[in-house]
Amino acid sequence: MRHCLISCCLLFALTACEEQNPQLLGPVPYRLESMSYAASPSRNQVVIFGGASESSYSSHVWFYQDNEYVLATPNRSVRPRTGAAVAYDELRNAFYAFGGIQTFTETTGSGDSQRTTTTVTVFDDLFIYPDTTKTSTTWLMFNELNVKPEPRYGAALLHDPEEDRIIMWGGWDRNRAPFPPNEYWIFNNQGWQKFSDGP
């Protein structure tokens, strides 16, 4: 919870800084909605991932630190999305992300023959940016696991440093139905395990 509050405060601060301080160093992210972000209190760093504009989705990773945005250039790309669950691992300076959503709406024809088609893709992939002290590295992918959470977006993710594990709960499926509040998943860098004894 402490890290979540710090993340929210830091994002509010950097947003206010972006709007009020024209002296930001270097480039800044173009305005996106539903970005995912996680913070490192020890490094005073915010990692920003994904998001969407009016016309496209993003898979960019930005670091915000010392009043400066830096665009990462990983050697491997992931599919653009919004609503990914993310967490910061301070033991390794690593950034975890799971799931997310893409929604595309296309209108064809005209008049009485006009049709609108909406395609929704919800992801169930886990990927890790292994070292946020470097702007160029390779995403680590964990997509071929036999046991993993159902596709979802808007979930909560955190790193538990005492047990060195990732905990995820909540979120919505492609039909906008929420997952049970007592259900959670744990990832220990080898695989996922599901539990149903939450509060």
Q: What is the C-alpha radius of gyration, as a whole number of Å?
A: 18 Å
- Total strands: the figure is 12
* Distinct helical segment count: 1
Total number of distinct structural domains? 1
Q: Flag low-confidence runs.
A: 1-26
How would you explain this protein's 3D organization?
The protein is mainly beta and 199 residues long. A hairpin with a 6-residue loop joins strand 6 and strand 7. The strands form three sheets. A four-stranded antiparallel beta sheet has the order 1-2-3-4, with helices on one face. It has a four-stranded antiparallel beta sheet with strand order 5-6-7-8, with no helix packed on it. Strands 9-10-11-12 form a four-stranded antiparallel beta sheet, with no helix packed on it. 29% of the residues are buried. It has one domain (2-195): Neuraminidase (6 Propeller). The protein contains one helix and twelve strands, in the order H-E-E-E-E-E-E-E-E-E-E-E-E.
Fold topology:
Elements: H1 2-20, E1 36-40, E2 45-49, E3 61-65, E4 68-71, E5 85-89, E6 94-108, E7 115-129, E8 140-141, E9 156-160, E10 165-169, E11 184-187, E12 192-195
Antiparallel strand pairs: 1-2, 2-3, 3-4, 5-6, 6-7, 7-8, 9-10, 10-11, 11-12
What's the short story on this structure?
This protein has one helix and twelve strands, in the order H-E-E-E-E-E-E-E-E-E-E-E-E. By secondary structure, the chain is mostly beta strands.
Q: Keywords for this structure?
A:
four-stranded antiparallel β-sheet, 12 strands, 10% helix, Neuraminidase, globular, disordered N terminus, mainly beta, 199 residues
